[in-house]
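Reading a protein record of the kind used here takes only a little practice. The record below shows the convention in full.

——
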Amino acid sequence: MRQFLLLLLLTAAVPSAAQPKAPEAFPYPAKTDRLPNGLSVVRVPFHSPGLVAYYTVVRVGSRNEVEPGKTGFAHFFEHMMFKGTKKHPEGERERLLATYGFNDNAFTTDDFTVYHSYGPTAGLDALIELEADRFRNLEYAEPSFRTEALAVLGEYHKNEANPWLRMEERLLGTAFQQHPYRHTTLGFYEDIQAMPEAYAYSRSFFERWYTPDNTLLFIVGDFQDGEVMARIREHYGPWNRKVAQVPIPTEPPQKEKRTVSVEWPSSTLPRQVLAWHTPAASTTTPSAAIQSVLSDYLVGSTSPVYKELVLDKQLVESIGSGFYPHRDPSLFSLHATLKAEESRPAVEAALTRAIQELASGKVDAARVQAIQSNIRYSLLMHLEAPDDVAGQLAWYAGIFGSPDALSRHLQNIARVQPEQLVSFAKRYLVESNLTVLTLTPATGGKP
């Protein structure tokens, strides 16, 4: 739901030489149809007798919150989508799905929102009708809206006990000046407090973004394709809204190093984050693939930095760079949880040295190739159930916008060349493009 808590970071576009042909990356056959109203429907038969996963991806996230005072609405509206319709009032959908034994939930990111259900194929017809009904005909009264707004405020209060939320707020607010990525998916606190008064705006938010041409369905598991598509056309076909065209502000280039510090009032471990602006992710450029490899290359478990800081000197409890591509230019970040405050200069120096060595042209081609293989096979090893497959397909489609985004992204990863990592570091991982965040606890570390 939140950038740091889900992962961290971003994208890059670097020209490259002729690329080798990459193998087909996604191992299961997929069928895709686009309804006349623009809804994309992707089906993947998967050997899972009696089980099916059903994922709905709406390409709206906190990046779309451009009006002043209205941040956090993509996440808030995820909550409202469970409030019922005239045909199925609040609570009825959940009772019906529970009779079949479906697991049912949702989550929101910077760039998209996902609604997902996993359960018996015997309940698929009922699920299709229920989902189409709420996406077409959501209804809720203002008292219900106000109650849920207070629940979202409570969620913020719960999460603010975690240092990562404060860090994310301060990092994004420092690195971004114009783009909506400057606020977290939860939104600015004062906007969350004001949400109970925004009932009318919430209705316009639904009409603006919850449209068939802004939505993709992923159905994975045991089902009869013809029967499923007939039900989809029956129940989703009348859905006829069009997605709004709302300009997203462009972030101006950063021209000098920025720093921000967080003083944490209670005991925890010190933290360090280095973040650079990088280009938007796209399946037609190598940017996201380069960073997917680069994150492991710089601070993964086979990197010299990991060996130095985690294993040999034991200066940090953890180090990483959770790769999370974004639809718009965002951040590529390295982060470390330090064991003691006095280790901070040595940790930052080690991270900086690793980047400078790469930018100088020193790159281990064999390790690059090993990382590429590991990314591919790690993913394949985790595609063990329909829910796993649908979840991965939905995640990458939400970012990149195409039903086959996962396969295309993996193909791009296979094409990454060592010299592209060097070019990326030279171009983007430079001091004028850098934002540094430090978190120092009140006691200097865990008691």
Notes: Residues 244 and 415 are 36 Å apart (CA to CA).
